[in-house]
UniProtKB/TrEMBL annotation:
It is found in: Cell membrane. It comes from Balearica regulorum gibbericeps. GO terms for biological process: adherens junction organization; calcium-dependent cell-cell adhesion via plasma membrane cell adhesion molecules; cell migration; cell morphogenesis; cell-cell adhesion mediated by cadherin; cell-cell junction assembly; homophilic cell adhesion via plasma membrane adhesion molecules; synaptic membrane adhesion. It comes from the Eukaryota. Residues 4-84, 85-193, 194-308, 309-413, 413-527 form the Cadherin domain. This is Cadherin-10. Pfam families: CADH_Y-type_LIR, Cadherin.
Length: 713
């Protein structure tokens, strides 16, 4: 309450208020000076307010006293409960932790004045989560309350924490929060096989590397704490099988290391161990962190293909053996217990020439054609073995046949020798060095001997003993006029057994040489010719030859042009004559061969247009005929033209083909071929040929005359 000393109680003074919240939160009674709050005041919003008050004369509105300032301080009461910043907390703690292990700390705040009483003093307690966890009352730290909590038994826990002010006393306000606690995994469980014995099966034909089956040990832990490594630690199949750990599935895959044989062994026993790869030393006392199981693998019988005694065969044989000689034998057996008989055969793709054959029962390979090392030194065969009871199950083996050399080829000259001897040669002069080759390949290498087939008075052979020989002259001087060529037989022998030899003949020409022995001419007739012709004489001779050739060609051309044979040479020469013009029409699209417009418009025919199929001897001026009117029927036009040509003496008597683009009616004459007439049994009458016009008179005379003669006889 405000009161001025000048206030006499007569209502002449007026109190006014200004400052924080004046007129809104705080109001003043103008007459009495009492200050009132218009609503509830919250200290947590504002702890104090500064106001100014003054008394003025109501009539003059002048202050009667100076303005005074005062502060209104709000005293706190416990009207706010503690609150947590998170409604739900999430925390984790390793399983098997010791008692008192810190999990998480929660903190609540109270908006009340901590300096005024216990309104802001908070105490923490646990409402849910006992006896597993506890909370420190002053700090809010949550700790484990039980030892050896096992994640495998229970993994999730929900703890409710309460925060209460007034030091936790009665009447205090409180707030709660929820903490979800998860136990994290540690490696406190060893792997365990669900079965003490595991049975697996595998066919004996399985290739190396085949996965036989899998084993798996279970581990209650998770993540890396559950990782397991598998190994084979004992058993009678440690060298036959392997085990590989599959990381994603944590399984042990057993694979085949070596081929199996049912007939040799049918059962294998393995001892497989599974061990954790990450072991926590704190939990060694819970170990050992590994387990074992027995794996029994049964081998199943399969009808196997035959097995050869070797992976490959090599046979050596001389090329001169007789046909049918056995060069070697391959052996195979049926590995199955039934021991089925084996049938052998040759893959003919490896013996296209069918040089070899094989006995199907015992596998003996023999020759069916002669061998020749010089053609092929090696033969690579493929032998197929199949069971008689199961021919589809086959096995192949390579057979290499090496052909050994036999001295069956005689040596020959290495090259063709073009040998000459100078006319002025002296005795003992070297004219040629010769060598030889041999298709055979003896072990000691090639060795050739050279000699003459007979004693020669002109030449001799000197063996150099290095597979070469020298041809030497035995006399002085040679003459081309007497003998221009000498033939010298040379015998070449080898050194192998049996000795092979051949005779090669050297052709030695006698030539003119200069003083240095260089050949100049080897032609014996060259000495009989004159010294030579000049260039002008050679050109003149050549021109004469050309002129003669031109004259001959022209003469032949003129003779061919003048020569013209008639269609029928004489009356006695009666035969079928076929004249081929080799002129094929161009069809309906050939507008150059014939113009159909000519038939439609006969007036458009050009004058003096001659036939192109023959060359007439005399040019007759064709008679001009009046053109038919435009409306003339095509048939009438053709008949008119036919009649004109029949009476035209200038028309050549040759068969020709004229296309009128009109088929017309069938011919009353039918076929004129003498070939068809021979098929009829009765005699034919050719008198109708006379009725066809003058163009067929010749035929009428020939065939009609024949009829008369026949009747007369």
């Amino acid at each position: 309450q405000l009161h001025s000393d000048q206030d006499k109680g007569d209502g002449s003074l007026k109190y006014i208020l200004s400052g924080d919240g004046a007129g809104t939160l705080f109001i003043i009674d103008e007459k009495t000076g009492d200050i009132h709050a218009t609503r509830r005041i919250d200290r947590e919003e504002k702890a104090f307010y500064t106001l100014r008050a003054q008394a003025i004369n109501r009539r003059t509105l002048r202050p009667v006293e100076p303005e005074s300032e005062f502060v209104i301080k709000i005293h706190d009461i416990n009207d706010n409960e503690p609150t947590f910043p998170e409604e739900i907390y999430t925390a984790s703690v390793p399983e098997m932790s010791v008692v008192g292990t810190s999990v998480v700390q929660v903190t609540a705040t109270d908006a009340d004045d901590p300096s005024y009483g216990n309104s802001a003093r908070v105490i923490y307690s646990i409402l849910q989560g006992q006896p597993y966890f506890s909370v420190e009352p002053e700090t809010g730290i949550i700790r484990t309350a039980l030892p050896n909590m096992n994640r495998e038994n229970r993994e999730q826990y929900q703890v409710v924490i309460q925060a209460k002010d007034m030091g936790g006393q009665m009447g205090g306000l409180s707030g709660t929060t929820t903490v979800n606690i998860t136990l994290t995994d540690v490696n406190d469980n060893p792997p365990r096989f669900p079965q003490s014995t595991i049975h697996l099966r595998i066919p004996e034909s399985s290739p190396v590397g085949t996965a036989i089956g899998s084993v798996k040990a279970t581990d209650a832990d998770t993540g890396k704490n559950a990782e397991v490594e598998y190994r084979i630690i004992d058993g009678d199949g440690t060298d036959m099988f392997d085990i590989v750990t599959q990381k994603d599935t944590q399984e042990g895959i057993i694979t085949l290391r070596k081929p199996l044989d049912y007939e040799t062994r049918r059962l294998y026993t393995l001892k497989v161990e599974a061990e954790n790869t990450h072991v926590d030393p704190r939990f060694y006392y819970l170990g050992p962190f590994k387990d074992t199981t027995i794996v029994k693998i049964s081998v199943e019988d399969v009808d196997e293909a035959p097995v050869f005694s070797r992976s490959s065969y090599l046979f050596e044989v001389h090329e001169d053996i007789e046909l049918g000689t056995i060069i070697g034998t391959v052996m195979a057996r049926d590995p199955d217990s039934a021991s089925s008989p084996i049938r052998f055969s040759l893959d003919r793709h490896t013996d296209l020439d069918r040089i070899f054959n094989i006995h199907s029962g015992n596998g003996s390979i023999y020759t069916s054609k002669p061998l020749d090392r010089e053609i092929s030194q090696w033969h690579n065969l493929s032998v197929i073995a199949a069971e008689i009871n199961n021919p589809k199950d086959t096995t192949r083996v390579p057979v290499y046949v090496r052909i050994l050399d036999v001295n069956d080829n005689a040596p020959q000259f290495a090259v063709f020798y073009d040998t000459f001897v100078c006319e002025n040669a002296r005795a003992g002069q070297l004219i040629q060095t010769i060598s030889a080759v041999d298709k055979d390949d003896p072990l000691g290498g090639q060795k050739f001997f050279f000699s003459l087939a007979a004693v020669n008075p002109n030449f001799t052979v000197q063996d150099n003993e290095d597979n070469t020989a020298r041809i030497l002259t035995r006399r002085n001087g040679f003459s081309r006029h007497e003998i221009s060529t000498y033939l010298l037989p040379v015998v070449i022998s080898d050194n192998d057994y049996p000795i092979q030899s051949s005779t090669g003949t050297l052709t030695i020409r006698v030539c003119a040489c200069d003083s240095r022995g260089n050949m100049q001419s080897c032609n014996a007739e060259a000495l009989l010719l004159p010294a030579g012709l000049s260039t002008g004489a050679l050109v003149a001779i050549l021109l004469c030859i050309i002129i003669l050739l031109v004259i001959v060609v022209l003469f032949a051309a003129l003779k061919r042009q003048r020569k013209k044979e008639p269609l029928i040479l004489s009356k006695e020469d009666i035969r079928d004559n076929i004249v081929s013009y080799n002129d094929e029409g161009g069809g309906e699209e050939d507008t150059q061969a014939f113009d159909i417009g000519t038939l439609r418009n006969p007036a458009a025919i050009e004058d003096k247009k001659l036939r192109r199929d023959i060359i007439p001897e005399t040019l007759f001026v064709p008679r001009r005929t009046p053109s038919a009117p435009d409306n003339t029927d095509v048939r009438d036009f053709i008949n008119q033209r036919l009649k004109e040509h029949d009476t035209d003496p200038s028309a050549p008597p040759y068969d020709s083909l004229a296309t009128y683009a009109y088929e017309g009616n069938d011919s009353i004459a039918e076929s004129l071929s003498s070939l068809e007439s021979g098929t009829t049994e009765g005699d034919q009458n050719y008198d109708y040929l006379r009725e066809w016009g003058p163009r067929f008179n010749k035929l009428a005379e020939m065939y009609g005359g024949g009829e008369s003669d026949k009747d007369a006889s």
